[in-house]
């Protein structure tokens, strides 16, 4: 009997790890514990991705990794995709999809029991439209220049060293460790000028392919949804996230923290951009039961404007609703204020996500994996 494999698929701008920064922070441990409580032994694989590449190219890379890790000889396969990773797995498993010449897609799908999406833009996100604007294209151009030119790498390397020094000064002044300190510890102090450094390779991948930018818009994803069908026999479920609209005021201590204020301002901007539904491409309205689950978990009535700072909450609904997290887009993969350790809260949404909420989120994923096996049997 072959192994049981669970593939964790990262999203847009995703990676497995860069330096000591992991995309799925402590997810493997939480999911493995939850599976064992249900008597399920599985090997969990963190997948590589192409950060901003088109969904078909990302899905084909996922297909190659399944084969590389022995997926075709496995007893059963399960996929868990965060953000755009949920679209990658849907395309790989869709009936009739042609990503390669060998027909491995059909064999992979035949072995697959469950496909769980986590904060995935199944119906697009307005944030993608921003990357098509002049400002968004400028940002991607800057990232490309930093990766592909020696001068760009030198500039970013100097900036990284300066930021790491500022983080160290914070420690001398007695401030608590924040996102800047964790970034410096896990990444900035490790960057080398050598173009083979993981940071430059990551930025280089962004420079080479940005196809997903157009595909993740509400207009682009409508074509994806029309062409990519769910495969009978696979149990599709979703974990959805949302946060209340951010407040302008902060606590007195936070007002003295420039690092927090900058990240909080960034989150407010992202939330505002994601809260503008397209007038001609609306999200499907949740069922009455789903609406009740959303309100009970979020603590407020959801609308088309409700989002997790990146993806509208209604856009995340696909298949069976497994769990609702009052959390932002990165909280659910372990990057939240109360997580501790190496992680950092890059999106300070004020959602109040806790270790208990994190465990509950991944326990719901484990329940879906175990449940799909029971229903199949």
Summarize the structure.
By secondary structure, the chain is an alpha/beta fold. It has helices at 27-37, 55-68, 84-93, 104-111, 126-131, 134-148, 150-172, 179-186, 198-208, 212-215, 218-227, 252-255, 258-274, 288-298, 355-376; strands at 4-9, 17-18, 21-22, 43-46, 76-82, 112-118, 235-242, 320-326. It has a six-stranded parallel sheet, with helices on both faces. The protein has a two-stranded antiparallel ribbon with strand order 2-3.
Walkthrough of the structure:
This protein has helices spanning 27-37, 55-68, 84-93, 104-111, 126-131, 134-148, 150-172, 179-186, 198-208, 212-215, 218-227, 252-255, 258-274, 288-298, 355-376, and strands at 4-9, 17-18, 21-22, 43-46, 76-82, 112-118, 235-242, 320-326. The protein contains 15 helices and eight strands. The protein is 46% helix and 11% strand. The protein is globular. It is α/β, with parallel strands linked by helices. The strands form two sheets. The chain has a six-stranded parallel sheet with strand order 4-1-5-6-7-8, with helices on both faces. A two-stranded antiparallel sheet has the order 2-3.
Stretches where pLDDT is under 50 for at least 5 consecutive residues are: 146-175, 179-195
Which sequence of strands runs across the widest sheet?
4-1-5-6-7-8
Listing every helix as H and every strand as E from the N terminus to the C terminus, the arrangement reads EEEHEHEHHEHHHHHHHEHHHEH
Structural class assignment: alpha/beta
- The tally of beta strands, per DSSP, is 8
**Shape summary:** globular
End-to-end distance, in Å?
Answer: 16 Å
Instruction: State mean pLDDT (0 to 100 scale).
Output: 80
Please estimate the helix content.
Answer: 40-55%
The number of helical segments is 15
User: What fraction of the residues are assigned to beta strands by DSSP?
Assistant: 5-15%
Biggest sheet, in brief?
6 strands, parallel
Rg is 20 Å
């Amino acid at each position: 009997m072959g192994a049981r494999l669970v593939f964790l698929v990262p999203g847009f701008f995703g990676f497995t790890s860069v330096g000591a920064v992991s995309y799925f922070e402590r997810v493997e441990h939480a999911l493995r514990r939850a599976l064992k409580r249900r008597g399920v032994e599985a090997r969990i694989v963190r997948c590589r991705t192409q950060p901003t590449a088109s969904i078909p190219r990302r899905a084909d890379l996922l297909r190659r990794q399944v084969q590389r890790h022995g997926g075709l000889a496995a007893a059963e396969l399960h996929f868990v995709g965060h953000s755009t990773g949920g679209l990658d797995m849907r395309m790989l498993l869709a009936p009739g999809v042609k990503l390669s010449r060998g027909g491995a897609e059909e064999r992979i799908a035949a072995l697959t029991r469950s496909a769980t999406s986590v904060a995935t833009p199944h119906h697009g996100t307005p944030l993608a439209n921003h990357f098509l604007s002049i400002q968004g294209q400028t940002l991607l151009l800057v990232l490309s220049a930093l990766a592909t030119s020696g001068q760009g790498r030198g500039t970013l390397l100097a900036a990284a060293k300066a930021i790491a020094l500022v983080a160290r000064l914070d420690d001398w002044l007695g401030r608590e460790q924040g996102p800047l300190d964790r970034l410096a510890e896990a990444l900035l102090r490790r960057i080398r000028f050598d173009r083979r450094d993981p940071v430059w390779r990551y930025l280089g991948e962004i420079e080479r392919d940005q196809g997903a930018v157009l595909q993740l818009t509400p207009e682009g994803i409508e074509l994806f949804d029309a062409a990519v069908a769910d495969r009978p026999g696979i149990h599709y479920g979703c974990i959805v996230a949302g946060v209340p609209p951010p407040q302008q005021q902060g606590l007195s201590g936070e007002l003295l923290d420039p690092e927090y204020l900058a990240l909080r301002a960034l989150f407010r901007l992202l939330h505002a951009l994601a809260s503008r539904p397209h007038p001609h491409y609306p999200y499907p309205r949740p069922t009455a039961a789903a609406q009740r689950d959303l309100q009970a978990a979020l603590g407020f009535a959801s609308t088309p404007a409700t989002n997790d700072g990146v993806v509208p909450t209604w856009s995340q609904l696909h298949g069976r609703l497994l769990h609702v997290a009052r959390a932002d887009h990165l909280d659910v993969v372990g990057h939240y204020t109360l997580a501790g350790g190496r992680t950092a809260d890059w999106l300070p949404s004020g959602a109040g996500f806790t270790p208990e909420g994190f465990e509950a989120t991944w326990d719901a994923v484990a329940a879906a994996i175990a449940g799909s096996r029971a229903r199949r049997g």
